[in-house]
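This part of the workshop introduces the protein records we will be handling. A record pairs a protein's sequence with a compact description of its fold. Comparing a sequence with its tokens is the quickest way to learn the format. The record below serves as our worked example for the rest of this section:
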Amino acid sequence: MSKRGEIKNLSKAIEDVFSQKHFRIGIDNVKVQDAWVKTMGKNIQKYTFKVYYKKGTLYVKLKSSVLKEELTFEKTKVINLINQELGKEYIKELELS
């Protein structure tokens, strides 16, 4: 932290704020949710009603049991596609319900 009255670069100040743990968790959650939408497309998004990320696991609640079965068989592929979209290995497990 800088001393009171010390001039600080704006980008450094923003970086300091967003590097705090509680901000980082929220930002990661939003990134993963966006990657889910981009990767899976609008058709699957219609059958999805909740997507959230926590500690390496992506939780997805689906409206269709048939879609749940299909995605269960392709879990590894889905995880790899989303991590590829993110450019980093965020997701280690996918929980479908």
Summary: Residues 21-45 form the longest helix (25 residues). The helical segments are 10-18, 21-45, 65-73, 75-86. The mean pLDDT is 88. DSSP finds four helices and three strands in the chain.
